[in-house]
Fold each of these.
Amino acid sequence: MRIYLIGAGVIGKAHAEAIRKLPAEDAIEVKVADPNPKALAAFVEAYPEATAYSDAQAMLAEEANEDDIVVVGTPPFTHFELARMALETGRHVLCEKPLVMNAEEAKTLLEIAKRQNRLLGCCSDRFLGLPKTEEVKSLLQSQALGDVYKISFVYRVQRGRSGVEYQPESKWFLDRSKGGGGILIDWGPYDFTVLNDLLQPESVDVVAAWMSQPKTQIDPTDTKYDVEGHVGATIKYNLADGKSVWLQYERATCTHGEAYHHVEVEGTLGAVKWSPYFESDEIVFKQDKEGQVDAKESQLPYTGLYNIMDHPIYYFYLQVKGKETRAIINEQAVFNFLCMQAIYECAESGSSKTVSKLRA
Ligand SMILES: NC(=O)c1ccc[n+]([C@@H]2O[C@H](COP(=O)([O-])OP(=O)(O)OC[C@H]3O[C@@H](n4cnc5c(N)ncnc54)[C@H](O)[C@@H]3O)[C@@H](O)[C@H]2O)c1
């Protein structure tokens, strides 16, 4: 099998690490392309098994094999063109989050993937398959919570801006024309992948949304900085059984308010609180017992060989091999992206926005 990495930056290296863990029976040939000679040299020093190219098109010029995989790990404004080019060479494409920059690009890529009979995957599936979130899913499915009516999904960080406090060398995070947005486009792909996996909605109504860019005394002045640091939305999830669940969504990467996170599903018979990400492996399940709140706490750590950063490569590799997997591909990848994108559209237009599940 051949895996072609486009982009030799931070995430390109994480993918190379994951490729090393893939089953040994598959001899995997790794190739990498990046026009930045420094990034390419650092990559090849760390991963000498990779053949290096300065140009992605040149790397993909050889004839395609049935199971070739191209991984697009470059800044978002390049995803569409690189993924389109890679699909058109007849290869499966796994694209970093965010899938693309806007709804039109997402739909066009899906059409090309279908026409080429290739898979289009998105790395927003990193946090799928964790035992704690699987447990929450089974609580929902078993009706242990009764009728679920509300989800709080709130992550507020005071100073955590990509391109400022985190990975300050990658200034593209701050420029909307390059990154597509701020905290929403950075973390929203994961949030809506986790939420859509839990709730399996038929459609999603973004009823109201807002965003802001809180200021600090170290705001960048030497580079374009026009992305949001704080966003919120009220969203209605319409489920297959005709019921609906309200989602209170909020993400801050810069706020003068309190830092906290709160992810909780509330139903008529119980509630469950957990963190789908790094903060903790604890689940707190609350029910009523004789008129009193009865809380059960459990720890569900993840101990698999493939860690969160390995998941996108591992899941997509299984998908290409035709095996059962948690990979997010094709219609689901585009639907998840559109749910997040609808928050931008609603915040900008002031009008609600509905996104319906795409059928294969
Ligand atoms: N850094 C993280 O922690 C992280 C985590 C998850 C996902 N991601 C996603 O990965 C993507 C890349 O982020 P990053 O942090 O690795 O960025 P980065 O700035 O570290 O690296 C991006 C690399 O892409 C290269 N590049 C740009 N245009 C190219 C082209 N046309 N062909 C080949 N290479 C090209 C650049 O030269 C650079 O080396 C983004 O979509 C980001 O959202 C990043």
Note: The longest strand covers residues 203-212.
Amino acid sequence: MRNSMDENEINPGEQLREVLKELFPADVKDNSFISKIDYIVQADGELIDLVYNSTINYLLRRLILTADFLKRQGEKDNRQNDVFITKLRAFLKDDMHFPEKHIGRISVLILECLDKRKKEVPSSTKDKIRKKAKNDNKPCYICGSELEFDLKKERSHNLVQVEHKWPRAMGGASNDFNLEVACSTCNSKKSDYIDASDFHYEKICLVSDENDEYFSTEMKREYELALWAKREFKCSICGKTSSVGGKLKFARKNPNDSWHFLNIDIFCEKHSKTSKTK
Ligand SMILES: [Zn+2]
Ligand SMILES: [Zn+2]
């Protein structure tokens, strides 16, 4: 059971991304090349969102990683922490051209992200989460496969791992509310990715059809992860994760069109059946 305090917690990286979105809101009605391409591929705004999110994620990474770089430089030169803070503020103001009035708020969030980056999950917490997952017979929350709980089988691709839903490297907390059990394959492929826009969604454009023998080879695990990520690893209809509703399946929105990122949606076992009969 999650405790109620956890529910209200937000990762500093997530907060920082919200600030960036406030400062640079998506202008859906603009006349950019993205809007034009979104229109011709009938993405209904989804392509605009992907490009927007990917650009915001890029900005978030630049801020967190540059700050980490500056901090390490300062530590190497044995400088005081306030020298690092001055450098960070100068980077935000002079290099990134953030408006003066937002620099205080942004710096505070960046420092919190750096703090989270360093904090690994305590082994006692990992033990507790793994033990509970084993008792509940929980599968990987991403791909839904059965987990190997014997830690001695370290080479197993289904070995249980404690995964940060919002990546630690991007300012994700090592607390219960941000942790889930995943298999080692999904954990490593998800890496420090935030959402579907961080994956190579543009490469997902398959030639084969569902029943072709090459389909499973073409639909690589990276692609599956990107597709699941676009619905935050939940069924697009009922919102169930694979831990509850079984492995999430794929179906096309338009059955006459090919299997490509914008035409594929994600369903639990039950809803994959109803979506296909339509
Ligand atoms: Zn998995
Ligand atoms: Zn469902």
Note: The first strand starts at residue 160 and ends at 164.
Amino acid sequence: MDCPDCGHDRTSVVDTRTGEDGATVRRRRECQRCSFRFTTYERPEWETLQVKKRDGRIEPFDRGKLRAGVERAVEKRPVDAATVESLVEAVERELAGRGTRIVSSSLVGELASDRLRDLDSVAYIRFVSVYEAFSDPEEFLDELDRVLDDRFERSDGSDDPDATTDDDSPDGTHTDDADD
Ligand SMILES: [Zn+2]
């Protein structure tokens, strides 16, 4: 690589580092003539979106696999196939818009679970219990608590008739607060 400063064609690498994503190499170079220092980046040029898994393996993004995961989560829940398909499409669009050809599997899971959370809490919990691979049951329970809190908050102040299907009070009357 020619020196960007003086154009000399001999530079030496003074430092090499692998990027955080494991798919980029950053080299610090020094011109052998003028000692100008600069940085170059080396990364593979993927033709399609790649997913980096937890164990470090990289494989092409597979929308069928994502769809299957979402389908499993919404099984017997009031979420139809068209909704699942548009969720998968939305996730894929968002991944493509990231400006990188390599994304982490946890990002894929996160984007899908964010959307599932708005659709159906049961499906959401099922999905994250598989995808987030909670290392600790406490974490899972915390997440469950957060979802349940959200549901109470949502059904509290809202006039949305759909909210009553998840409501504990069948006649729609609320006591002021669950807290005594
Ligand atoms: Zn130079």
Note: The helical segments are 63-74, 81-96, 105-119, 121-131, 137-157.
